[in-house]
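Appendix B. One record, verbatim.
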Amino acid sequence: MKTVLIGAGVLIGIFVIFQIYLIIITNPSESYNLVKSKETFEIRYYPLITTAVISSSTKSYKDLGSIGFSKLANYISGANKENVHIAMNAPIYMDIGESTSTMSFIMPTKYTKEDIPTPNDTNIVIKVTAGEHVAAIRFAGFASDEKIRQKIKIFKNILQKQGYSYYGNFRFLSYNRPYQLFNRRNEIIVSVGSWN
């Protein structure tokens, strides 16, 4: 019995150390300029970025994650014409559109559309996104479809009450590995036309 308790204690210790490691070690994050900080959200400016994008007809964030993540992860792990490993940056973008949904990985700033490794998977498209001003709201924990939709609804109400005009789809941003249990960061962003 004593051996079992010691073994369980060691496993719990390893688990706790691993979770702390995940909190400390993070992927490089996309840079942005903070334009204005409000009580419940921020206005940010994101400069031009290069992304690897996979499209789907799904209307579920969970399904989009299942479909897109492995394909994009394979691409940055060397499944490209140049057999090059590409560093992963956070966050991962998910956009549920009327007819098409997309998942995007942000490419390191050293790459342009012209010199980025060519994906072996022809369903992966390299895109350059123009700079934009966005409103962003942050929330913690695991993000289910229901939770994301609830946060979008709350965010719409906040923006409307404060007189902010927004356009385009609300996008979900995920910053953490799926197996990280603590200190999780999620965001919802939407393009804004004015931020006064």
